[in-house]
């Protein structure tokens, strides 16, 4: 029986969503199409009805993760003052370390070490996501009248991504919490 276009689109969306979660949780290299399709309860052979390659799925899954991250940050900061918005961005971003919470929002922080081995398209997408993150921070810093807002935002974004990456690779919860706490205090000292 042939599926309708809407059913096909829903299935594709489910595959992308599942892949996005699995890639961020388990890594790009460790997550195969068989695992993704199994998690969706779809036969492995169905993969190529929706995607030309795993790389195509990685790109779409990465884009979905970015879209979800920025939608969440936009919703969380709506109607807040710039200072409150920055505090919310920092707290939300730092809340995603696996040892501290089950939230894994940012594919750059979750996959950073693997991305250097990814194809150029995926690496470019990762950097565009980082630039978008920096622009979000920069906009709030500019509203606060901070000089060199772009440079400050780039530094803040880099610290946040680095802190979550480090907190994600440690095996000690106390170390993860300390890294995240110190990063938060360091980053927010520039907005007070």
Task: Please explain how this structure is put together.
The protein is an all-alpha fold and 192 residues long. The protein has a domain at 55-188: Tetracycline Repressor, domain 2. Helices cover 73% and strands 0% of the residues. It contains nine helices and no strands. α4 (54-77) packs parallel to α7 (120-143), α5 (82-94) runs antiparallel to α9 and α7 (120-143) crosses α8. The longest helix is centred in the middle third of the chain and has 24 residues, at 54-77. The chain is elongated and about 60 Å long. The N and C termini lie far apart (62 Å). The model has no long low-confidence stretch (mean pLDDT 90).
Q: Could you name the ranges where pLDDT drops below 50 across 5 or more consecutive residues? A: none
For the record, give the distance between the C-alpha atoms at the N and C termini, rounded to a whole number: 62 Å
The topology string of helices and strands comes to HHHHHHHHH
Number of helices: 9
| CATH architecture group name of the domain at 55-188 | Orthogonal Bundle
- CATH C-level of the domain at 55-188: Mainly Alpha
Question: Helices and strands: which structural class?
Answer: mainly alpha
What's the pLDDT, averaged over the residues? 90
Inertia-based shape: elongated
CATH superfamily of the domain at 55-188: Tetracycline Repressor, domain 2
The CATH topology of the domain at 55-188 comes to Tetracycline Repressor, domain 2
Radius of gyration: 18 Å
Largest sheet report? none
Report the count of strand segments.
Answer: 0
């Amino acid at each position: 029986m042939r599926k309708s276009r809407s059913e096909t689109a829903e299935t594709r969306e489910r595959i992308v969503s599942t892949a996005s979660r699995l890639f961020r949780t388990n890594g790009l290299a460790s997550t195969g199409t068989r695992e993704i399709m199994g998690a969706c309860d779809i036969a492995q052979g169905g993969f190529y009805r929706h995607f030309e390659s795993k790389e195509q799925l990685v790109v779409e899954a990465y884009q979905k993760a970015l879209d979800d991250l920025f939608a969440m940050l936009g919703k969380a900061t709506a109607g807040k003052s710039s200072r409150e918005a920055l505090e919310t961005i920092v707290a939300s971003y730092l809340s995603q370390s696996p040892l501290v919470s089950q939230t894994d929002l940012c594919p750059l922080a979750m996959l950073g070490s693997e991305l250097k081995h990814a194809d150029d398209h995926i690496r470019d997408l990762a950097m565009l996501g980082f630039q978008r993150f920096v622009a979000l921070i920069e906009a709030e810093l500019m509203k606060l009248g901070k000089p060199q807002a772009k440079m400050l935002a780039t530094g803040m974004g880099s610290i946040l991504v680095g802190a979550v990456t480090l907190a994600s690779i440690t095996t000690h919860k106390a170390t993860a919490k300390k890294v995240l706490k110190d990063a938060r205090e360091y980053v927010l000292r520039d907005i007070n």
